[in-house]
Amino acid sequence: MNTKTLNNINQNIVVTEELIERYENEKEKIKSKVVPAWQLYSCEIIGCSFAIAIVSANILDLGAMIIGVMGGAAIGASVPYIVKQIKIGDLNYQIFTNGLILKNLEKEKSKVCEKVKILHK
Asked: Does residue 112 contact residue 12 with C-beta atoms inside 8 Å?
């Protein structure tokens, strides 16, 4: 029974290591991917539209409108990069938690190995 448990633990370790590797590859792919220009411009246009809607200035007050539109464009342009960082952060969290699982599996493996050694004596 202990050897069967040991085999299961070894399989879990292998699968967890493969999962961590897959997450790291996905993270590198996301890091190297460039944000498309159409996404950037679309978010800027949406940001400008919201800024114009939120700014409750008179239409003749061009200074307030220009500042509002510039702020909306800046915030809108940062949205794709924020989403990219959130995806990378999620993958970092998955790698971290699977690393903890891997450590626990290694500890469990060493305990089972000790039991197997005791039984074989």
From this structure: no
Reported as a single tens digit per residue, the pLDDT across 98-111 is 999 999 988 888 88
- Residue 121 is given by DSSP the state -
Tell how far CA 110 is from the center of its chain: 32
Which two three-digit tokens encode residue 27?
């993270």
- Tokens at residue 57, please? 């200035």
CB 54 within 8 A of CB 75: no
Q: Cβ neighbours of residue 2 under 8 Å, at least 6 residues apart?
A: 112, 115, 116, 119
What pLDDT score does 112 carry? Answer: 80
The pLDDT tens digits of the residues spanning 59-91 come to 667 787 888 889 889 999 999 999 999 999 999
pLDDT at residue 57, rounded to an integer: 64
Angle at 62 between CA 59 and CA 64, to 5 degrees: 95
pTM exceeds 0.85, yes or no: no
CA distances from 96 to 16, 20, 24, 100 (A): 12, 9, 11, 6
